[in-house]
Specification:
There is one protein chain. By secondary structure, the protein is mainly alpha-helical. Among the domains are: about 35-115, Endolytic murein transglycosylase (Dna Ligase, domain 1); about 115-195, no CATH class; about 305-350, Double Stranded RNA Binding Domain. The protein is built from 13 helices and six strands. Strands 1-2 form a two-stranded antiparallel sheet. A hairpin with a 5-residue loop joins strand 5 and strand 6 (about 320). Helix 7 (about 180-200) packs parallel to helix 12.
Length: about 350
Amino acid sequence: MSPKVRGKAARVLQLLALLSVVAMALVAGVVEQRWRAPLLLPEQGMVLLVQSGDSLRSVASRLHDKGVLAHPELLVAWARFHGLDARIRRGEYRLAPGLNARSLLELLVSGQVIQYQVTLPEGIALGRALEILQAESALEQVLSGVDDSRLLQLVAPREAPEGLFLPESYRFERGASDLDILGRAHQALLNALGSEWERRAPDLPYANPYEALIMASIIERETGVPEEREEIAGVFVRRLRLGMRLQTDPTIIYGLGEAFDGNLRRQHLRDIGNLYNTYRHDGLPPTPIALPGRAAIHAALQPAAGDALYFVARGDGTHEFNATLEGHERAVRKYQLKRRQDYRSTPGTQ
């Protein structure tokens, strides 16, 4: 081949190489443009559910079918090339306007799924807690009630689950169940009770942490005033030490269950068949009567010092404490009279 021919061939090869580079640049530019182009999302965004067993290809296809992802094959190819296609995590994702294919993939790999929250208030009974959980549409409902065998297995060896769950706020992802939440609440309760038990005041009249938990549940139901918890605990602890009955209405009400119509009667106070009747039975009731919070557990194990053995509701949420029965009876008469006067002064009650 003559030098002239060789030169011409070299120039052709150079031109082809240049055209190849230009073509690759154009393709890369198109790919990059598509890769960074915003997804076609509605103004309010949308929720994407990635279920267990979903592949990236199936997720991309669903988004394509909805008109959100214009080039699903590009997403899958990019993810496969970078070894990310098998790393997407299940759950619910909130897709906000402005998201592109790259940030979508990053989101699916990150596992930053939508978080929900449910709150179990202090002082409610377990049955009410189950109602709150069952009202959460994002939670799977697996429990049939407070006697569900799975729930009893969770709190074993205790035979009754009441009071064994810490009332707090719990965050969860869609797919979690009511049993999952109560499992976490039970462990949180054990941790809180164990920690407070280790730091308990000396010479308390409890044989074990469970008895302290029972006391905490009574304290929780007796007052909604945080400043009174330790003082009420002190009253009950002194009564136990002296062999006096606790004589607290919330325990009777709990024992009555659905039979309680909102009016506590003398016959209820005399009912010895109600094992939660602390007017007729010595010591603590058989189980907690509610879900006590951390503050009530602390109060049960750190009761306030003093000599009060009685307290009566003032009608404003607080209580008057007395060391003698005579002082207590005077306070009862005082606040009963005040309640009657308040009632008579209310329009429409004459």
